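Key result, reporting period 2: structure in, sequence out.
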């Protein structure tokens, strides 16, 4: 699969005729006779090839006057893997749009974050996706509205503003245009129990992904490194607090065979889209595991590891600045010691939250809150105190930006310029915070042990050279190499 797949008509037709779910989110099929658009795996009888046209986004289909299919619900398919494996302007713009920037700051705000003019951003998005930033944000608002209509008993007026619409009339018109149903008709089509609220007023959602997905290292890593008060594992779910643009939230994520069960409690419903986007990013749910694993299987050393447990994802984060600070706290200490350091900062500087289920107590402190701490209060060597306070200072004053709009190469160079930042710290932040799928950790002790056990070169330079054929998926190779060890990060908690 590759960028611009919707232009390969023959390949798209084959995917539709075989109902191949791997292609969901890569392109959308618009049917000229019915004026409906579908995902490739739609269960209905495929239309004749001459009646199909293909588009790169749901927004482009909507722009062209097509309505979403009521059977396959293409607006709820997994997101395109492109936006998490590329670092160009379009990919960075799509990550920001998913994070709700257009709704909060408008197109000028989106362009300013990217360092381009609004016209340049509009032109590039139109050229590649067939829709500009406003249309893409509108499609996202429609999807959020449908989710709230179908999963909550909220009044329609509240849903309209929570989904990001400026008026109830715009909300009604958009829902009718996109789904060919009014908001009230969308709700009445559901069995009554489907719209029942979850416990404690939470929203119960299903997060789709492309199969296969191996949850072991994904949830194992998040839980093994969990900071008390901010994260926990309870009743088969990873739970954590979320700092969001309009307020805060608590999420519980449970792995299921064909989806991730997501239970969200939000202090402000306008944060729903952002919360979902960040949870999907943390669990790497928009990855294309078939493409990744096929590439890694070409190496005879990695092939048995992939075949044993395919579909490993890269555990990421819901807050890039938080992860960077925790990475420094974890330098040259055990996982338990890193959690202890972080827990002390959470208790002293984190914002308290109420957890209806108990267990979670705080949001992780912001860089601004930690900028005022006394370095002497940090129970760590003086050089690492300097590393931590320098990082916090640059995050707080905006000198260093780890947001989804950042350029991976430039940001990594900025990290390496900080005192106490070596390749391991910069690369683990690139892999888990920035989301670079090709980030590699040749100096990591676990990787070097795995390399030695598998007969790979164990010195950083030689291992990096040996890993060249794994590109651009070296971050996923890291997960398979780590999995050769018995560390708790590699196992689903019980």
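The corresponding designed sequence is given below.
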């Amino acid at each position: 699969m590759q960028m611009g797949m919707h232009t390969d008509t023959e390949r798209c037709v084959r995917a539709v005729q075989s109902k191949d779910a791997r292609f969901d989110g890569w392109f959308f099929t618009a049917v000229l006779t019915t004026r409906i658009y579908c995902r490739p795996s739609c269960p209905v009888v495929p239309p004749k090839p001459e009646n199909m046209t293909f588009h790169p986004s749901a927004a482009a289909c909507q722009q062209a006057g097509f309505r979403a299919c009521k059977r396959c619900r293409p607006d709820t398919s997994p997101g395109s893997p492109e936006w998490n494996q590329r670092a160009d302007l379009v990919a960075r713009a799509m990550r920001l749009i998913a994070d709700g920037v257009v709704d909060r700051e408008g197109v000028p705000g989106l362009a300013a974050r990217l360092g381009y003019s609004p016209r340049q951003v509009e032109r590039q998005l139109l050229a590649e996706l067939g829709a500009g930033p406003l249309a893409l944000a509108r499609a996202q608002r429609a999807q959020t509205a449908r989710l709230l209509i179908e999963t909550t008993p909220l009044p329609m007026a509240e849903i309209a503003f929570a989904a990001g619409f400026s008026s109830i009339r715009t909300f009604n018109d958009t829902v009718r245009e996109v789904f060919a149903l009014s908001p009230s008709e969308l709700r009445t089509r559901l069995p009554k129990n489907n719209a029942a609220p979850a416990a404690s007023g939470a929203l119960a959602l299903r997060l789709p992904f492309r199969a296969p997905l191996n949850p072991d290292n994904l949830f194992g890593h998040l839980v093994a490194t969990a900071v008390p008060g901010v994260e926990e594992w309870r009743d088969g779910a990873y739970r954590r607090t979320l700092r969001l643009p309009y307020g805060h939230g608590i999420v519980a994520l449970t792995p299921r065979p064909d989806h991730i069960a997501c239970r969200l409690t939000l202090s402000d419903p306008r944060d729903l889209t952002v919360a979902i986007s960040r949870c999907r990013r943390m669990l790497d749910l928009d990855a294309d595991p078939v493409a990744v694993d096929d590439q890694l299987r070409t190496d005879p050393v990695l092939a048995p590891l992939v075949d044993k447990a395919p579909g490993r994802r890269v555990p990421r984060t819901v807050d890039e600045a938080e992860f960077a600070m925790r990475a420094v706290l974890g330098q040259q200490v055990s996982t338990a010691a890193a959690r202890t350091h972080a827990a002390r900062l959470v208790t002293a500087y984190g914002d308290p939250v109420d957890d209806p289920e108990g267990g979670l107590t705080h949001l992780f402190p912001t860089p601004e809150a930690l900028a005022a701490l006394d370095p002497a209060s940090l129970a760590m060597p003086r050089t690492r105190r300097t590393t931590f306070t320098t990082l916090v200072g640059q995050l707080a004053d905006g000198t260093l930006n780890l947001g989804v709009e950042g350029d991976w190469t430039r940001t990594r160079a900025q990290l390496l310029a900080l005192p106490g930042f070596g390749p391991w710290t910069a690369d683990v932040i690139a892999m888990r915070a920035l989301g670079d799928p090709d980030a590699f950790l040749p100096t990591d002790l676990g990787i070097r042990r795995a390399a030695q056990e598998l007969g790979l070169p164990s010195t950083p330079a030689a291992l990096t050279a040996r890993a060249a054929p794994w590109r651009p998926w070296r971050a996923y190779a890291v997960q398979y190499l780590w999995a050769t060890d018995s560390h708790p990060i590699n196992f689903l908690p019980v």
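The longest strand covers residues 248-255. The first helix runs from residue 9 to 17. This case is discussed further under Risks and Mitigation.
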